[in-house]
Amino acid sequence: MEQLKAATEKENVRIEEQKAKIDEQLKEVQPLIDEARKSVSSIKSESLSEIRSLRAPPEAVRDILQAVLLFMGILDTSWEAMRKFLSKSGVKEEIMNFDANRITNEIHKKVTALVKQKSNSFEEANAKRASAAAAPLAAWVKANLEYSKILEKIAPLEGEKNKLLKNLKKAEKQMENLSKGLQSVDEVVGELKRKFEVLMKEATQIKVDLDREQETIKIAGTLVESLAGEFQRWKLQIENLKDEQSKMELCSLITSAFITYLGGCSEKDRNSLLKAMCKMFNISHFKPLSFASLETEQLNWKTKGLPSDQLSLENGMIMFNSCHVSLIIDPSGQVSSFLSKFLEKSETFKAAQSDLMTQIELAIRFGKTIIIDDVVEFDTALIPILRRDLSSQGPRQVISFGGKQIDFNTDFRIFICTRDEKVEIRPNAANQLNIVNFTTTISALSAQLLDVAIHLEKPELEERSSGLLRDAELKKLELEGLEQLLLQQLATSQGNLLENTALLDSLNKSKESAEIISKSIEESEHLHKELNTQKEIYVPLSLYTSSLFFSFSNLQYYNPMYNYSVNTIMRLFEKVIKSCQDNSSTRVETLTRQIQLTVFYHISRGIFRQDRLMFAVAFINATMPKLFQSKEWELFTGVLVDESSTQSGIRVSWITPERLPALARIRSHLPSLFNALKLQDDASWNEFSKTLQSEKAIPSNVEVTLSDFQKVLFIQAVKPERLYNALVDFVNKNLKINSINPPAFELKHIFAESEAIEPILFILADGADPSQELSELATALRVPYHSISMGQGQEQIAYDAIKECSIKGEWLCLNNLHLMLAAVPSIFKHLSLTTPHENFRLWLTTEADPRFPSMMLQQSLKITFEPPPGVRNNLLRTYTQIDKQTRNTVTCQSIFVLAWLHALLQERRTFIPQGWTKFYEFGASDVRVARAFVEQLTAKEADWEFVRGILKFVIYGGRIENDFDAKVLDSYLNVLFCDDKINGRPGKELVKGVEIPASDKMEEYIGLIGKQVPSVDEPYLFGLPENIKYSWQIVEAERTISSIRTLALGDSKNALTDSTETTTQIIALWKKLCQSDDLPKRELPVFHSTDPIQEVLCLEAINALNLIKFLHRSIGNVAKSMKNPSMASVSTQKVIQSLVFQQTPDEWDSAWAGPSDPAEYLNAVVKKTRGTMQLHESSKSSSLLSSPIDFSDLFYPNTFLNALRQMTSRQLQIPLDQLALSSAWTPSQLPPKQCVQVQGLLLQGATFDSFLRETTVSSSVYYPAPLLHLAWTTEASSTINGEQIQVPLYSSNDRSDLVTSVNMPCRGTDKWNIAAVALFLK
What we know:
- By secondary structure, this protein is of the alpha/beta class.
- The termini are far apart.
């Protein structure tokens, strides 16, 4: 027995040695097997599903799967068998647990042959490229093949080991026979053992139970510990859910309203309206986006290309939760791309394509999702779809579309996208659409610009950053999925949670995966932050560039032709980055400067000359906010509303009294600036008060304390006639440019700058036409050029030409689009459907028209085309239309004088309202027709009276509406067309320095124009006063400020939501104006007098108080509406809208036509009311006519003059129609009893001291006129001896409201008519 045991032990030692040898052989290949199994375990189910879903797999995938199936013993290696194998639920585990001992020699040979034959398929790189799952499987195949080789090699060792095991079993059998003899002993021992076992079993059971309870406690502790983070988060979520559940109805109501009504609102409006709704329902911090969409959904939207800003995410929520069809306004064009990626199996169609209706019909039938992009006009054929006008035909639902009854599939969805914010939608369609406006916000735009900058400057950085961001968001989605799975497992578990080991294992795995993903997300975010640090260098550039866009985006609200899309700034930004040559450390600063100038000049080139200063000042305000301190911009633009400022305490000898109120406003709103001016130091300000260019003569000790804009504010207050120059200097200095006008452009540069898909739109002014230059450029570049003048019947010709020229790479010019605005959308559609040749260009010309389709404006390269200003350029333009045929000298002189007259009439429009009271459309056709008449009438002996009559009544006079403007034309004709000027002899001057040649050669006249006519217009050329440029500067500066105000307010729809501040200021101003004498509560006066003047003044007082009471009610209604907007009537809403735009409401203006600014209007009403009341009181004592009267205190001075006429008629017993208004400047010339003295008049265009005198360059704009005496006398009587001129008396300096006309003594009536002398009320 002992010998057998010893032999057995020896056999065991030899067996172990054999095992060690076998293990030594397997040691090298085992890591390969383990690594292959690990790689197989990492294969994602999605990757296997992806392979399974393939109709025809890549060759590498097929070869690898064939090897796998052979190892598994599956001889059918067809693709169907492979797909069936991969679809098994535990396929990964089966592969991982495969026993290589199962590999037979035959299988080994087959697989070895396959791997040799298709070695490329089993290379890791090729396998990876074929599929994410293929590489691990290939590694597994090669590892098992290697393992099989080793098994074959160790087969002899295995045989020897088996032989030893056989001997061992034999020895053990012998030992068993021997042990039977010990059975009896063993039975006794067995009995004892059984008893012992029973006792041990009981003890063991106790220990097992104890161990189980301890294990349960341990599992419970581990579970509680591992779910601690989730517990806190879920606890918070439960509290939020309970809170939301308690307010579910209200939250649903607010979210529904948000989705239904706020999709078309801007971000600012949404926030304010949402805040108002939440306040109404007493809900705080509510976000419809979080309520109506999961974070995973939002992450998914962002990964598919939806912009990540708040507004875009809200819009995404609205689009996918609305039951109405969404009309998506997307200026950037990103959303249609996002929808096509996000919506599976969706199709995108252009609105212009001819088969659109057929595609929509197919989509309705088969339940497709379609996206209609680039909609220019909303097609009413879509209305049945919007309304879902369904009808039943048996079990089918049908819809009427395109004149057909079509089966309606409930899966059908449609999204409509447009870039045009002003797309026209009929009311019946608008009610069925949910408008979703992807308004450009500064944060979203700066993010886009940053992406563009990184893409162009650091493409590798952008690629890494995008990959990390995408990876992090995908992992967040995966983490969210694991958390949902965790919750689902906990919710669906049955029995004792702690005893459900499968569940606990699953929970632990999910938790471990979640922790791994969380760490991975943290690492990705950390790395992303590091990359962002490298991107930070471009953040200021992108933010600044986005501010540039918002500096011109509102121009369309001032002039609809100035319409630019966000793509404009994107293109310019990309162009600047690509063209920048600075590669040093200052590159970003260089880029900032270049983009500033590029944008400024690009926009300036697309707006008219007269609007460039307005844009330049607004541009600086938008892009350089640090130049403006608090309240400075508001004071400059007149946004600050207050009572006519009191100037008490301001005593400055060199400042005129009428400028003191403006100075008082500075003291009131900007006291530090007022104190810094040191105005009491007369010695320092002496030069400033005397110099013409006062903006450049601010004392040095004061100038150093003022900012550039503070100097502008000061000039605005005390020297408004220099404000225009001050603004130009301010712009040039801060933009570091020489002129607010862009550099002169050439058409060849425009051609080089433009692209084939981008139309070039010329916005024409004053008859300018680039057609000739375009034709010459096309000839020089050898490009075929076609020109079509648009008019009725030309539409189809234009469409065909666009198609043909775009294919051939030729140029096409469509002229006068303003005559065929209805065809512009169709032109845009046809253009959008082309894939043009790179040399193709579409040139368009149009005059400015507010109805011009905005879509074409946004997509075009816009250039304003204006004729060069000035008399010289005007004369040269006229002479380009004159042929060189032979004419006599008088005719040639007559043509020259006619061209001169035409130039004066046109260029005089620069000085509106002094040059002309309004803009008159004198055009090239006028001078062409006039020349034909003049040539005919001067061919022989000229009849100048007849010539003047033709020019006055046939050519130019018919356009003139104002009597005093007609006198200007009369005087020009009298001075120019007479024998004294045109007689065929030399030496006659039109004006100083400009002679009329005595020649019959046109070349001499053209040469004289270039030599003698100055390039810059001076007042003497027109016969206007020398100081008219001051008046022009005042008008231009006021127009500029008014335009800036319009820009700042933008769209009326957006402005109305921000009405509180302005209307509150108006309400406060009204209270302040009325508080001293409580005008709204004053009793209306009662009149009993028969005196016409007393009666009229009493009626004036009654009308004034009624106007006060009316305004009080109107402003009261506005105040009530501010507290409760739902109470506002339609008329009150209109009043509020006007006040927001700082315009006098129409209903106020209809009560009394006053200033256009509401604050000035209220100040004027209160001032005139008080003045009228004082005049009424004075009339009761019969002392009214004995003292001077200020007509500016009256609402209707004409009515007072009529009352004076009635009184005179009664006193003198003369009929009214025999009385004429006479004027005198000395009291002795008129009867004292019927004479009224008028004070406070201002004279413009001349000075006066018994006669009208010429002004000088340094003369002030207005000259205080002496006391005027007016009386009604018989028509035969005359108060002025000698030459005199009728001068209009206007109520204000805009020359719109004529009070009367008065006679003024002068020398040379034509001269003063041409000078446009006028009187104004104070």
